[in-house]
Amino acid sequence: EVDLEERLCELDLRNDSDVPDVPPPTDSTPEILKRALSGLSARWKNWWIRGILTLAMISGFFLIIYLGSFMLMLLVLSIQVKCYHEIITIGYRVYHSYDLPWFRSLSWYFLLCVNYFFYGETVADYFATFVQRREQLQFLIRYHRFISFALYLTGFCMFVLSLVKKHYRLQFYMFAWTHVTLLITVTQSHLVIQNLFEGMIWFLVPISSVICNDITAYIFGFFFGRTPLIKLSPKKTWEGFIGGFFSTVVFGFIFSYFLAQHQYFVCPVEYNSETNRFVTECEPSELFQMEKYSVPPLLQAVLGWETVNMYPFQMHSFALSTFASLIGPFGGFFASGFKRAFKIKDFADTIPGHGGIMDRFDCQYLMATFVHVYITSFIRGPNPSKLLKQLLILQPEQQLSVYKTLKSHLVEKGILQPSLRG
Amino acid sequence: RSLQSGCYSSFYLFDLQESESENKLDGETASDSESKSEFGGSSPVPTSDDTPEVLNRALSNLSSRWKNWWVRGILTLAMITFFFIIIYLGPMVLMTIVMCVQIKCFHEIITIGYNVYHSYDLPWFRTLSWYFLLCVNYFFYGETVTDYFFTLVQREEPLRILSKYHRFISFALYLTGFCMFVLSLVKKHYRLQFYMFGWTHVTLLIVVTQSHLIIHNLFEGMIWFIVPISCVICNDIMAYMFGFFFGRTPLIKLSPKKTWEGFIGGFFSTVLFGLLLSYVMSGYRCFTCPVEFNNDTNSFTVDCEPSELFQLQEYNIPVLLQSVVGWKTVRMYPFQIHSIALSTFASLIGPFGGFFASGFKRAFKIKDFANTIPGHGGIMDRFDCQYLMATFVNVYIASFIRGPNPSKLIQQFLTLRPDQQLHIFNTLKAHLVDRGILGSLEDA
């Protein structure tokens, strides 16, 4: 026990630079690439590998978009599980806790519980007609919160019962590590899915803006970079930061212009119970209908136009791109600080040249929450079908009083004609 | 660097000492832990005797063991009396008390984190922890206030804007804190800073969310606040007494003082206590009615027609109990059936919250969370079992008792577009006509 505590002391208190680095990850670049690039020098070889993998990921992304919203949901779910796995593995390595009793099972169990809770909340909303038809699902939906809480409690009690005398502190650390990871990865992946259901454009534009900012900041930094931005990430420069900001805003504008024209991207995703498929068909809302805007006098001289036809959504894309360029990088700095704190170079070795999945998605998390909060605050009102569902659960007397209130309100606003027919 | 190595060596020494007293800890049974007053020397913060002077003088002739028993007993009575006074003063004062308890618990846990990591001098960190506490509280209070104070909020212009963009404002505030944290990362202290960031967030998750669930329960009706808390307190006291008089078989290695006899005795007494307490409370409107905010008098009112739950009904006693009790039917409130569920949870699962806290204290080598209450420890020590209870009651109410809130639904309806409003209105009308609730087309 003294040995364990001693090791813990070393981890906690010694100066960061004294602790030896975790051994560098093995090179998992596929053989084909290696042979193709065997002639080039090491620096260019790394550049080419990163470039090829970037293109591969972007193509994969386009392919999934083509395949539709259901595939996208599955993709988001797999990424979430992989990110969770990466962070938990780091925790294991840091605390040498491979042999803690039960802990792997408990971590995966908690992941399952929290996912069950969140999917239950979303499924109930969007698949209302599907659920109404099946008895067992009805029961699960009605008592959903209670069932989720009971599942979580079981995990909690198992944790308490699994506390072993020599490992108390380690077990509490891993418990907290698990919960913070769940908070970061699971809640935000569900926010991404909710954004997706609002319309694929709300999923594509933010993610593309973050990727574009990453790439253009890197390119601007490569060619013009001189002033370092922050001590945490010595490779970032102010030139890259500002250049990335302007290019991302322009990219966001142009990209939303193209996407806003297609119903496939603009319409909320709905589940059609007859065909048992997701459909994206609707009357495009005001956000996606061209409007004339007067160009402010300052810009008139530069551009030479007096009015311009734009989608209102492009105004929103301006806010989204600004966030992606200015605040998104803080997510990246947070991840860099985390990697430095725990002396790791990358989260994992999943993608050759890039590191783990978490490395690619660190900036996305803040973005997902921002887009969700933005939509609920400025764009979307409450969901009518959810409201209806809740109205139908009320007691009959409550329904009657609500009906009367609504009727008087509608008559007052002139939406309903006051007549004997009600 | 020398400061760090100094801290390191003292930490190392403290651990060596601990490995010896750890064995003493396990050998303990039902006797009380007064012999462990030496324990104070090995914890990072030495515990001082906080008992007020007056008590010290009054009890000066008794032996040390009985003195401690008396101190605990007197403080217990003082806390229970205090509880009754607060209930008498009304919901507003209760809300304030819950708020204060929450802040104190947060402070206690964060202070432990500081002590464990010797991180008194991390730049910005105290400020950031309190700032995050403020943000999360602002977010939660904003959500509750908008629901219950709807008309008040609509009248005042600044409040209306704050409530309309509430989520966005809360998120912006949180983000500011997050960015400040990232900017405050200092080269030598990365790991410590990330630890404290994680520690703060887990503490917020435990302490703040659950105190807000307690307030939700309170608004449902004061009985939903009082019965669960009293059941947990009763279970604590009853399990202690049963353990004191009859305790023999240890329950769990984590808490050597707990015994199976105490556990089971506590369970039955708590269920009985719950039944009796709910019987007494269900008769009074001030406990059973939902708390509402009266716009005209600008105060909280608890006045309503009691719901079915709080109206006496005849129940048939199952045949097994008939011979025991001698009655064929009994008049009970339906709420008393629910109180059985609440008491069962308080006795069977509530203690796991206590075991979790015991494990936590052992893991970080502390005797108590703090020294706020003489004889009892910190506020957190008293409230560790309550947290699971609060979440359970809230989930129970949401699943089995309460339907959606009609005024909240109307409020959401009013923000929809006219065509959506019309669609919902027509669907509702068709549903009501279908069920025969709405007699004819003219009858509205």
UniProtKB/TrEMBL annotation, chain A:
Membrane-crossing segments per the record: 47-79, 100-119, 139-161, 173-193, 199-225, 237-260, 313-335
Taxonomic source organism: Climacteris rufus
GO MF entry, a single one: phosphatidate cytidylyltransferase activity
Protein name in the entry: Phosphatidate cytidylyltransferase
EC number(s) given by UniProt: 2.7.7.41
Catalysed reactions, semicolon-separated: 1,2-di-(9Z,12Z-octadecadienoyl)-sn-glycero-3-phosphate + CTP + H(+) = 1,2-di-(9Z,12Z-octadecadienoyl)-sn-glycero-3-cytidine-5'-diphosphate + diphosphate; 1-hexadecanoyl-2-(5Z,8Z,11Z,14Z-eicosatetraenoyl)-sn-glycero-3-phosphate + CTP + H(+) = 1-hexadecanoyl-2-(5Z,8Z,11Z,14Z-eicosatetraenoyl)-sn-glycero-3-cytidine-5'-diphosphate + diphosphate; 1-octadecanoyl-2-(5Z,8Z,11Z,14Z-eicosatetraenoyl)-sn-glycero-3-phosphate + CTP + H(+) = 1-octadecanoyl-2-(5Z,8Z,11Z,14Z-eicosatetraenoyl)-sn-glycero-3-cytidine-5'-diphosphate + diphosphate; 1,2-di-(9Z-octadecenoyl)-sn-glycero-3-phosphate + CTP + H(+) = 1,2-di-(9Z-octadecenoyl)-sn-glycero-3-cytidine-5'-diphosphate + diphosphate
Taxonomic superkingdom: Eukaryota
Sorted UniProt keywords: Lipid biosynthesis, Lipid metabolism, Membrane, Nucleotidyltransferase, Phospholipid biosynthesis, Phospholipid metabolism, Transferase, Transmembrane, Transmembrane helix
Keyword Cell division: no
InterPro entries, per database record: PC_trans (IPR000374), PC_Trfase_euk (IPR016720)
Primary subcellular site in the record, as a coarse category: membrane
Family: Belongs to the CDS family.
Automatic annotation (TrEMBL), chain B:
Keywords recorded for this protein, A-Z: Lipid biosynthesis, Lipid metabolism, Membrane, Nucleotidyltransferase, Phospholipid biosynthesis, Phospholipid metabolism, Transferase, Transmembrane, Transmembrane helix
Gene Ontology BP terms: CDP-diacylglycerol biosynthetic process
InterPro entries, sorted: PC_trans, PC_Trfase_euk
Biased composition (Basic and acidic residues): 21-37
One Gene Ontology term of the molecular function aspect: phosphatidate cytidylyltransferase activity
Transmembrane parts of this sequence: 124-141, 168-186, 193-215, 221-247, 259-281, 335-357
Subcellular locations according to the entry: Membrane
EC number from the UniProt entry: 2.7.7.41
Iron-sulfur keyword on record: no
Domain of life: Eukaryota
Catalytic activity: 1,2-di-(5Z,8Z,11Z,14Z)-eicosatetraenoyl-sn-glycero-3-phosphate + CTP + H(+) = 1,2-di-(5Z,8Z,11Z,14Z-eicosatetraenoyl)-sn-glycero-3-cytidine-5'-diphosphate + diphosphate; a 1,2-diacyl-sn-glycero-3-phosphate + CTP + H(+) = a CDP-1,2-diacyl-sn-glycerol + diphosphate; 1,2-di-(9Z,12Z-octadecadienoyl)-sn-glycero-3-phosphate + CTP + H(+) = 1,2-di-(9Z,12Z-octadecadienoyl)-sn-glycero-3-cytidine-5'-diphosphate + diphosphate; 1-hexadecanoyl-2-(5Z,8Z,11Z,14Z-eicosatetraenoyl)-sn-glycero-3-phosphate + CTP + H(+) = 1-hexadecanoyl-2-(5Z,8Z,11Z,14Z-eicosatetraenoyl)-sn-glycero-3-cytidine-5'-diphosphate + diphosphate
Alphabetical list of PROSITE patterns matching this protein: CDS
One Pfam family in the UniProt entry: CTP_transf_1
Entry membrane topology: Multi-pass membrane protein
Region described as Disordered: spans on this chain: 21-52
Pathway where it operates: Lipid metabolism; Phospholipid metabolism; CDP-diacylglycerol biosynthesis; CDP-diacylglycerol from sn-glycerol 3-phosphate: step 3/3
GO cellular component, one term: endoplasmic reticulum membrane
Family to which this protein belongs: Belongs to the CDS family.
Full protein name: Phosphatidate cytidylyltransferase
Native species: Climacteris rufus (rufous treecreeper)
